[in-house]
Amino acid sequence: MDWREVYNQKVVTAEEAVKHIASGNRVVVGHACGEPSYLLDVMVANKEQYENVEIVHMVAMGKAEYCLPENRKHFRHNAIFVGGTTRKAVEEGRADFTPVYFHEVPKLFKTTLPVDVALIQVSPMDEHGYCSFGVSSDYTKPAAEEAKMVIAQVNKEMPHTMGDNFIHISDIDFVVEHDAPLIELPNPKIGDIEREIGRHCASLINDGDTLQLGIGAIPDAVLSFLGDKKDLGIHSEMFSDGVLGLVDKGVINNKKKTFKKGKFIVTFLMGTKKLYDFVHDNPAVELYPVNFVNDPKVIMQNDNLVSINSCVQVDLMGQVASESIGIKQISGVGGQVDFVRGANMGNNGRAIMAMPSTVKGKVSKIVPLLDEGAATTTGRCDVDYVVTEYGVAQLKGHTLRERARALIKIAHPDFREELAKVFEERFHEKF
Ligand code: COA
Q1: Which of 134, 168, 382, 405 has minimal Cβ neighbours within 10 Å of its Cβ?
Q2: Ligand 1 pocket residue status of 346, Cβ below 6 Å
Q3: CA 196, 199, 200, 201 torsion-angle sign
């Protein structure tokens, strides 16, 4: 079969492609830095063609103009994660939020969220007719598999990555060729507090461990303390530029992994062009859909897995709120619980919840009780280590009394007295 001929027959302009979206359709948009920004721009520019199109998107790194008040009649956003560009719309009731563990998102496409249209971005086609999903396999590939219609932006800048991360041209309905740099996530600034948190987390990491790291300054701070470790591996929802220095030094080499030895296993990637060049055609980096990478039953096959995630509040029982401040949804569960559970289930796993002890020095993140209305993201039976710039509290296997003591010791000194009073009332014992 001449796949090039098949491909050529599917090439249309973006304006032509988005005409095939109908009012009332559910459109699932490619995730994070894999977002097909050009298709979204053209869809929003042609908004008068539709009413009430549901936009399902997770980490929206682009403009998320479908959320703007003036586009309310045309689009309704169903967020499976809330971020900077979508928070206001959810808060003001113009968008909805669906709580879901990241690894279960693909299941929703088979149940409550059947997909009419998948808007995706892929690498150019190879001679066998396959395009790579590049930096974003996650729910993007499963959405494309379930969709009644697939519109793909084919972008020469999208890296060609390995794993179970390809779509065949016969499964794409419309091809829109548009080359543009991918969305980048700039390297975070690491301050003194993050550095201290990183130092404490690094004290829990041993040679030969496999790491899961979230996004931001804390994971990068942790990595900066791992320069003298040996044979670390990665099985993570994602990784960013922060790991590259340790790869160059030979510290991260995946040699001691007990699952997919020798490979970085991830479901998406976020970083700069440097990261995207590193993963391009790199046989050591494999991307798989999130229902594989984040499935706790898969994660647990990694012995010595250390997961590092962040949160908004921890109460004295060890209940962790990571996605809402009271009733206000500011984020989502993402892969946090997937990895906490996977680490807990595996041999010698450690799940770390790392956070600054305060919000800008004003509010303690260690609190007597979670704010009213806050969702408990990681439950008290799942929680293991909590780390702040003041140290490490190990909670799993400890009583409520022991947990409270350990947490107060790593709270900011300005709030310890207040918390100690709560301790004394609750446990009838001097702190
Ligand atoms: N009380 C009041 N406000 C709080 C707060 C608290 N206890 N904790 C955080 N906030 C505010 C911050 O001030 C900030 O507000 P601003 O944007 O107006 O400055 C906002 O909430 C976000 O907090 P910040 O600490 O800047 O967020 P972050 O970028 O460090 O991310 C989480 C922290 C918890 C939101 C993020 O780690 C997350 O989404 N976790 C859940 C998902 C996850 O773990 N995924 C797994 C791996 S990717």
Answers
A1: 168
A2: no
A3: positive
- For CA atoms 373, 378, 384, 385, give the dihedral sign: negative
Confirm if 323 and 331 have CB atoms less than 8 A apart: yes
Mutate to test the pocket of ligand 1, among 310, 339, 388, 415 (most ligand atoms within 8 A of CB): 310
Q: What is the pLDDT of residue 213?
A: 94
Beta bridge partners of 320: 314, 378
Neighbouring residues of 384: CB distance < 8 A, sequence distance ≥ 6: 340, 343, 344, 350, 351, 352, 353, 394, 395, 396
DSSP string, 215-256: SSHHHHHHHHT-TT--SBEEB-SEE-GGGHHHHHTTSB--TT
Ligand 1 binding pocket includes 378 (Cβ within 6 Å): no
**Residue 212 structure tokens:** 């899961």
User: Which of 31-35, 55-59, 186-190, 415-419 has the least mean pLDDT?
Assistant: 186-190
Cα–Cα distance measured from residue 206 to residue 184, given in angstroms and rounded to the nearest whole number: 31
Mean pLDDT (whole number) for 48-68: 97
Annotation marks residue 237 as catalytic: yes
How would you label 406-419 residue by residue, b for 16+ Cβ within 10 Å and e otherwise? Answer: bbbbbbbeebbeeb
Atom of ligand 1 nearest to the CA of 364: 7
pLDDT digits (tens, 9 = 90+) for 11-47: 999 999 999 999 999 999 999 999 999 999 999 999 9
Evaluate whether 420 touches 407 at the Cβ level (below 8 Å).
Answer: no
pTM, two decimals, is 0.97
How far apart are alpha carbons 75 and 62 in whole angstroms?
A: 16
- Identify the three-state secondary structure at position 315: strand
CA distance 386 to 49: 50
C-alpha to C-alpha distance for 323 and 84, rounded to whole angstroms: 13
Is the minimum distance from the CB of 214 to ligand 1 under 6 angstroms? yes
Chain centroid, CA 357 distance in Å = 23
- Joined together, the tokens standing for residue 16 give 């032509």
Tokens for 353, please give them.
């919840």
The model's confidence at residue 203, banded by pLDDT at 50, 70 and 90, is very high
239 HSE (CA, 13 A, CB side): 29
pLDDT tens, position by position, 135-167: 999 999 999 999 999 999 999 999 999 999 999
Query: Could you say which of 146, 194, 196, 237 is catalytic?
Result: 237
How many Å apart are CA 283 and CA 161, to the nearest integer?
Answer: 8
* Non-local CB neighbours of 92 within 8 Å, separated by 6+ positions: 69
Residue-level pLDDT at 214:
85
Tokens read off for 172: 């794409």
CB 213 within 8 A of CB 204: no
